């Protein structure tokens, strides 16, 4: 079709005009240089992470592994009782564990089958896993080339412990995602303040405040990280030009309010609902109270208590075993320390050292914060809180990549073949590490040598965090399954008096709405019912030493003992049926 002209000028179609007015496309950047990641780079990482996440979920769900940790069961229970309780509402949000994970589970946990099988807690964790991998890549791109950022993200994303935790209601995946993105945003905020990019600085400072609040409401580690990030950004703001300071003053103020709001709100919540603003530190469910309760009278102090040296050894060893197979963790740790030194030498890259903050936090917590940690590699050879070592996984990942990238750059200046071979060996080592951490080599050796052949345990051991969940659930899950059957025998709609603090899994397994329970968690109804349990519940389940057992011992009238269930490591549960229940609430 001929083009129409006016005054001799050729008319252009709107589409052609838009193409002409569009800015020229950026020339492809050199893949061997360091530059910030763009959306086109991060999107494939996120999509691959979604695939990995669902594969992990498929494996974990099909084998019934999502509820191995008692803490995962408890997190789901807290989220469930916000809406399903005798007195639902904010009072059910908790008092020791921070609320954000429970609020994220809230839309999913009200579906009974998702609560029972644990998948309600998996959805937020899987989303956090995807965001964490994207954050790992984005942060690595601040320091290394795309190929090494990919290698770092592969090491992080394929970690079997992280993959397992991402299918549970545990809080580690969420915190790691927040830690990585908080560091990315802090890096960009400092960079923008130094370059007088006011608009970018404002946005990043506000995002930093929001991420800090999210960290504060996720784990107590986040309180320290958030405070450190505020100090870093406040110093960067103070050192910026007068014009930039004036333009971003309000953003700094809002960031400060957001960062401080988290702790203040949590203090207020504890004061209002627990009647002690420091209940999470010194209340009946605090780390201090739990350690005092679980430590046998007259026993020697655990290693690490009041000893920061041993605390450092336990935490760093757990971090090594959580990150790498066999003794490869020592190499990863030394490489990461060297990478930290390299980052310190570069002024802007020092911000990434925020990733090391979990180290002093947990050394203090193990030594003086009543937080024990046991791993099979160190005395006494048991399993407890090994997952805390996962908090160093971002640091081990990013700073090891920084060192390896420097080695590859040095090799490339001498021989391209040597540099390419080195990178291939690193990728091979990442795959080898994943396979070895899953105990695959030991299993293969066992099959070759026969079932009766002796194979070193360290060759066949599964990932440490998963193994801890498996070991510590051996007695708990059968015990709770038996209790669940007894609860179901009470009949539909029966009111049950039971302490859900320690064995929420029994109620979860039975699929009983929490509003049917009389529990110490609903103190208003429990305090009344404890004066005469038989009057307020059709079925009473008392476990040795718990509040229900004490109430039964004080007021046994009207109760007929049906059965006693004992399990090693779990105590004994006594089942009573009321002969005088009148439907009182």
Automatic annotation (TrEMBL):
Keyword Protein biosynthesis: no
Region (Disordered): 1-34
Keyword Translocase: no
Protein's cellular compartments: Cell membrane
Compositional bias ranges of the Polar residues kind: 1-13
GO cellular component: plasma membrane
Residue ranges that the Swiss-Prot or TrEMBL entry lists as coiled coil: none
Domain of life: Bacteria
One Gene Ontology term from the biological process aspect of the record: lipopolysaccharide biosynthetic process
Record keywords: Cell membrane, Glycosyltransferase, Membrane, Transferase, Transmembrane, Transmembrane helix
PANTHER family found in the cross-reference section: MANNOSYLTRANSFERASE YKCB-RELATED, MEMBRANE PROTEIN
Protein name: Glycosyltransferase RgtA/B/C/D-like domain-containing protein
